[in-house]
Design brief:
Largest interface: A-B, 26 and 25 residues
Number of domains of chain A: 4
Radius of gyration of chain A: 37 Å
Shape of chain A: globular
Structural class of chain A: alpha+beta
Distance between the termini of chain B: 43 Å
Number of domains of chain B: 1
CATH class of chain B: Mainly Alpha
Distance between the termini of chain A: 74 Å
Number of strands of chain A: 24
Number of helices of chain B: 4
Helix content of chain B: 40-55%
Number of strands of chain B: 2
Structural class of chain B: mainly alpha
Radius of gyration of chain B: 16 Å
CATH superfamily of chain B: Winged helix-like DNA-binding domain superfamily/Winged helix DNA-binding domain
Strand content of chain B: 5-15%
Largest sheet of chain B: 2 strands, antiparallel
Largest sheet of chain A: 13 strands, mixed
Strand content of chain A: 15-25%
CATH architecture of chain B: Orthogonal Bundle
Helix content of chain A: 40-55%
Oligomer: heterodimer
């Protein structure tokens, strides 16, 4: 007999190796090879090869189906056992599933939140090629960053640098009164844009011509919603529209296009684009079109598919420097559209750190839930030990047992996933409400999340099943069946460590929530230096804003409930405009940026701001009026100025009254005389330090009218104000809000953080306590006989309760010791982002409070079980002994 | 007792006849020879495996040979249940066939 072995073809051999059932591989493979070899000798290679291939195609499916069938038979048994266990131990199953599904729901919600944040601007097809040109200015002691840039910048870059293949400027000119026939509304999202906007950005045009829509002056593109708001069902193309505000007066437009409504997950929100050309004749060339100094609009440029932003940034800075004065130290920074929302140092939109914090927290909560599962299943291992023993005796391999337990946990986790999706469905609206996002439940099905959910099920199942599977499957059948295995003794230390871990996380979360809350409370209650409650602000963007509002003021003051009325260019809560100034006695070339506001005589009185030196603006001094004639030459007496203490401190003046502040316009200098000094007040969020500011007197900069009211009968006062408004400005709607609402909005992201953390720590403690409850009831069950004997020997109920709670108390205490330093470090880092903050060391009481809270809750949980056990009649537990 | 399928019955008989030599390859050769049809490896293996799991067959591992590429061979043998099943089948067959005259297929 020929002993030579002819190896069969490679590919089918590999396929067989891959798909034959593992246990049979050697024998079946050998059978195939043997037949192949005898064929080879009889009929030659070709027909043997052919046979081999056909065999494979014919036999493999059959063999595979067979092995799948038999493994299903076993799986059926696993399923049966799982459901039996589930039914028999309803309490434990409930704890496991409840914990897991709450944890998962929390995690899914956070993932949805994060995905929404990451999705910002992703609908713009060129999001990776479009860059916003930001301006950064490094001064001696601070850095100013602005998303705004000079007007001529973008076009110049486009003309001078070949890599810049497109540009758009977005000029927002605040609120407009928009009018078509008798439809009149205030619109906040009206933006002037270059025609490049429609090419670069993805604003799908539904009607009209994309290439020409914004080229001509006085043309506008509306969103669908706007079109139906003003034109109903009529075709808006070619229809006239009128816009008006105090900056540009009245302007007549023609609608040339309708674009799709913009998605909410975008920071470039505009419901009406007006061609930049429309400003050509209105805006002055020197102060606007060729002004390289002030930064009035937002510029975007587009680069080719392959580009290096770093190199382009270098080039645009070279071009920029050519147009700047030598002492101008501003530099340009490019920022990719895609990264704008989360990574920008120039705007205050999303924050990638917050998202990471949330993701980490969600993961930790899920971890706490998984640990519950591990703890409970190992604790109850004794109950399963006999099953494991039996299975091993009848021939189960360890691998099969591991598979069984993993299968069980995955089943549990799949079950929890279904429940958690229901929870997500219920709580998604609340999340949207909290975060101001617009996520719909249907989004889960659409995106790839569904695979992610599947992944979560498997991962959670594998993770929480890992320890039980390895631990339970290692039992020796002989010792288990003989009853040698002490119930629940094994893995006790491990369980303790896990409980400590769970509670450390929980306590740290509670502490962080406390600290966040304290900081927010501190910011809201800190004396701002001016009155912010019961101040009604009328936003006066129409042409009336530049008129004298004296008649309105006088009419309002007739009402004793109105304490004061004033007009101003800015609200005390907003920084929007800066002035570069020098001052009397300033070192050569030294400049300071002052925050600028133009106000009338009653501003300081209405806002109850304290004057610390000098006097308020007064009609008795006509020279107080700002002399805005900037024809040419220096103006020795440009008007009066009131500074805040910070400005005086920065100027280094001992006696500021009568000193001069100098504002330069090109070569011209305007001298303002200091007439008064006001106390520093926090004009913006307490996140920022107080900055130097000045007030000018101006009677026609009445963009905002503020009304200080008495607390009684506010609705009555408001309707009085509305009636007066309608009498004096019959054609204008009145748009008003309360100042404190603006303030609270500034802390919205912190508030959101705090509330979410509140919920998170609530959930964490809920899940952790579920686990503790399960462990406690298990401990009580295990020690039934011990408790019975103790009672017979005269132990009191309280003695037994403390016996049972002692162990858990120690665990929670240890968890505290671990949680404190972590919480301390985390909250200290977070507090550093506030200029005015609470001292973390003064908040240590809250660390103790968190500890006490955690202890109390865990005692409550444990003692419920302990008292039940302690009250049990010893006769019942000892009867069978 | 559960009735075996025809295929299974044939395989049991082949295993019985081959005695100590009942490897999959030999069973297959035997079946092909006596039925005249080509049996694929899968056709033979699947019923073998099923009957092993149902307890009619036992298996033991033999020595690897060069012809098999150094892989071991699995031999099958009837278990007690397998033998009982076969003899039961035999009885059923005999009872069913009893009284039926030789089927003479007339050639016309």
């Amino acid at each position: 007999m020929n002993q030579r072995f002819y190896p069969p073809p490679k590919i089918p051999q590999w396929l067989m190796h891959r798909f034959l059932p593992q246990t049979e591989q050697v024998y079946l493979g050998g059978d195939f090879d043997e037949i192949y070899n005898s064929m080879f000798e009889e009929k030659g290679r070709a027909s043997a090869n052919r046979w081999y291939w056909f065999q494979l195609i014919q036999s493999l499916p059959e063999i595979m189906l067979n092995s799948i069938y038999w493994s299903l038979v076993m799986f059926q048994n696993y399923l049966k056992i799982t459901f039996r266990n589930l039914k028999r131990h309803k309490g434990y199953s409930l704890i496991n599933i409840a914990g897991l599904s709450v944890g998962m729901a929390c995690f899914i919600l956070i993932i949805l939140f994060a995905m929404y944040e990451f999705s910002f601007e992703s609908h713009h097809q060129n999001a990776e090629r479009i860059y916003r040109v930001n301006v950064e200015q490094h001064l001696t002691d601070q850095v100013f960053r602005a998303q705004t840039s000079p007007v001529p910048l973008a076009e110049t870059l486009y003309n001078e640098i070949p890599e810049v293949i497109g540009f758009t400027r977005f000029q927002s000119l605040r609120t407009f009164l928009v009018r078509h026939e008798d439809q009149r509304y205030y619109e906040n999202e009206v933006v002037f844009a270059d025609h490049g906007a429609l090419d670069m950005f993805t604003f799908p045009i539904l009607k009209g011509d994309k290439t020409t829509a914004l080229r001509e002056p006085n043309t506008a593109v509306l969103t669908e919603d706007m079109a139906s708001k003003y034109f109903g069902n009529l075709d808006p193309i070619g229809k006239p529209l009128e816009v008006e505000n105090n900056l540009i007066g009245k302007m007549s437009l023609m609608v040339t296009g309708v674009m799709q409504n913009q998605p909410k997950n975008s920071n470039i929100q505009s419901n009406m684009l007006i061609s930049m050309e429309s400003l050509k004749d209105i805006a002055p060339p020197a102060a606007y079109w060729n002004n390289w100094i002030s930064q009035q609009l937002v510029s975007y440029i587009m680069l080719p598919e392959t580009h290096s932003a770093v190199e382009v940034e270098k080039k645009i800075n070279e071009v920029f420097a050519k147009h700047l004065r030598d002492d101008d130290k501003r530099v340009l920074k490019l920022e990719q559209l895609k990264r704008m929302h989360l990574y920008s140092a120039f705007t205050n939109t999303g924050d990638i750190r917050t998202i990471y914090i949330f993701l980490a927290t969600g993961l930790l909560i899920l971890l706490i839930a998984c640990i519950n599962f591990m703890n409970l299943s190992t604790a109850r291992s004794a109950n399963r030990a006999k099953e494991v023993g039996m299975r091993k005796v009848v021939g189960a391999k360890r691998k099969q047992l591991i598979q069984q337990f993993f299968g069980e946990t995955i089943l549990f986790s799949a079950f929890s996933m279904v429940l958690s999706l229901a929870l997500v469905y219920v709580f998604l609206p609340s999340l949207n409400n909290l975060t101001g996002q617009f996520i719909r439940f249907g989004d889960i099905a659409r995106s790839g999340i569904i695979f992610g959910l599947f992944g979560i099920v498997v991962l959670v199942g594998l993770f929480s099943g890992s320890y039980p599977a390895l631990f339970l499957s290692a039992f020796q059948p002989t010792s288990v069946l003989k009853g040698i295995l002490k119930t629940g003794q094994k893995g006790r230390m491990f369980r303790k460590v896990l409980v400590i871990f769970q509670f450390s996380i929980t306590i740290a979360l509670i502490i962080c929530t406390f600290v966040l809350g304290r900081q927010l409370q501190f910011m809201r209650n800190k004396a701002m230096g001016f009155k912010k409650d019961q101040i009604l602000v009328i936003s006066n963007e129409s042409a009336a804003g530049s008129q004298n509002i004296q008649p309105f003021k006088t009419a309002l003051m007739q009402n004793p409930r109105v304490l004061g009325v004033c007009g101003s260019l800015q609200l005390p809560s907003r920084i929007g405009m800066y002035n570069d100034v020098t001052w009397e006695g300033a070192p050569e070339g030294e400049k300071i940026e002052l925050i600028h506001n133009s106000v009338d005589y009653d501003f300081i009185g209405t806002y109850e701001i304290e004057l610390v030196a000098g006097r308020n603006f007064s009609p008795e001094f006509p020279t107080d009026q700002r002399n805005t004639r900037r024809s040419s030459g220096d103006s020795q007496n440009a008007g009066a100025v009131i500074l805040n203490q910070e400005a005086v401190r920065r100027f280094g003046w001992e006696d500021p009254i009568g000193k001069k502040v100098i504002q330069t316009y090109g070569a011209d200098r305007n001298y303002y005389t200091v007439v008064g000094v006001i106390e520093d007040f926090h004009f913006s969020s307490l996140k920022n330090a107080i900055r130097p500011m000045n007030l000018f007197l101006s009677l026609d900069s009445n963009r905002y009218i503020s009304v200080n009211m008495q607390t009684q009968d506010i609705p009555g006062t408001i309707s009085f104000i509305e009636e007066t408004w309608d009498k004096i400005y019959p054609n204008l709607p009145m748009d008003y809000y309360f100042l404190d609402s603006v303030f609270d909005r500034q802390y919205r992201s912190e508030q959101r953080l705090q509330r979410l953390f509140g919920y998170f720590s609530g959930l964490a403690i809920f899940i952790a306590c579920l686990g503790l409850f399960g462990l406690a009831s298990f401990a009580a069950e295990q020690r039934t006989k011990e408790i019975g004997i103790r009672k017979v020997l005269g132990s009191s109920v309280s003695g037994i309760v403390s016996l049972l709670s002692k162990e858990f108390t120690i665990l929670v205490m240890v968890a505290n010791i671990i949680a404190w330093p972590i919480a301390y470090l985390v909250s200290r880092t977070w507090l550093k982002s506030f200029a005015y903050r609470i001292d973390i060391n003064s908040q240590l009481g809250y660390f103790l409070a968190a500890a006490v809270l955690a202890l109390l809750i865990s005692w409550l949980t444990v003692s419920f079980q302990a008292i039940k056990a302690a009250h049990a009649n010893p006769v019942d537990s000892l009867r069978y002994e | 007792m559960k009735y075996l399928t025809r295929k299974e019955e044939l395989i049991l008989l082949a295993v019985f006849k081959l005695e100590d030599n009942a490897s999959l390859v030999k069973i297959r050769e035997n079946l092909t020879a006596s039925t005249g049809n080509e049996w694929t490896v899968g056709n033979v293996y699947v019923p073998l495996d099923r009957m092993k799991k149902l307890g009619y067959l036992k298996s033991h591992i033999g020595q690897p040979t060069a012809q098999r590429g150094g892989k071991a061979v699995k031999f099958y043998r009837l278990s007690k249940e397998g033998k009982e099943a076969l003899s039961e089948l035999r009885k059923v067959h005999d009872r069913m066939w009893a009284g039926i005259p030789e089927l003479a297929i007339k050639k016309e």
